[in-house]
Amino acid sequence: SSELTQDPAMSVALGQTVRITCQGDSLRSYYASWYQQKPGQAPVLVIYSKNNRPSGIPDRFSGSSSGNTASLTITGAQAEDEADYYCNSRDSSSNHYVFGTGTKVTVL
Amino acid sequence: QVQLVQSGPEVKEPGASVRVSCKASGYTFTVYYLHWVRQAPGQGLDWMGWIHPSSGATNYAQKFQGRVTMTRDTSINTAYMELSNLRSDDTAVYYCARDRDASSSLDYWGQGTLVTVPS
Q1: Fewer Cβ in 10 A, N or C end of chain A?
Q2: Secondary structure in 3-state letters for chain B
């Protein structure tokens, strides 16, 4: 089955921009979705179908994709954006779904 | 408003089975795929499979094939995930989540159910 690889940890200064990447072969065929998870809470969908935000998600969150890489960008990071972020997509070889390894974002 | 409410925490002996329920409200239960995802302590998200509540069709991740069964009761808008032959490494929070458009976008999640299997 396919894998989705993310950097384990990233940091960003308050108000600055951070881009989180997700790499995997399935991303050549399917869009990624992105989730934010804070400690002790269920994940929250922040981006779907490459660059669509669910209602209530701030517009500082945006998504993009190129080749086998999907990206989540937080423009003007806020303290409340400190969380774990996961990508996911369908697996192109098996019709299953797969999550990325996760990125812990620290806002300094 | 859309809600997914899961059953409470469970403690099970190794080799036993556990069934977690997920009651949906605020939308038409039979229209959307429902996924199950688990998260071991301190670890990432692990996709287990989905069920389509209308047909009962299921699709399980390879690693859980033979041990997981997903079912639903449309009369009470509830989905179930049963995991058998439990091991200590099955200790995790189990989530149900609604798929908004059958494209991996899980837009509503249950609160999670902690299943503990002592070693």
Answers
A1: C
A2: CCEEEECCCEECCCCCCEEEEEEEECCCHHHCCEEEEEECCCCCEEEEEEECCCCCCEEECHHHCCCEEEEEECCCCEEEEEECCCCHHHCEEEEEEEECCCCCCEEEECCCEEEECCC
CA distance B46 to chain A (A): 7
Show residues of chain A in contact with B1, CB under 8 Å.
none
The tens digit of pLDDT for each residue in B42-97 reads: 999 999 999 999 999 999 999 999 999 999 999 999 999 999 999 999 999 999 99
Give A31-52 pLDDT, tens digit per residue.
999 999 999 999 999 999 889 9
Q: Which residues of A touch B59 (CB under 8 A)?
A: 95-96
Q: Does B105 contact A90 at a Cβ distance shorter than 8 Å?
A: no
- Cα–Cα distances in angstroms (integers) from residue B58 to residues B36, B55, B69, B92, in the given order: 11, 9, 9, 22
Pick from B44, B101, B105: which is nearest to A102 by CB?
Answer: B44
Q: Which of A37, A96, A102 sits opposite B59 (nearest CB)?
A: A96
CB spacing of A99 vs B46 below 8 angstroms = yes
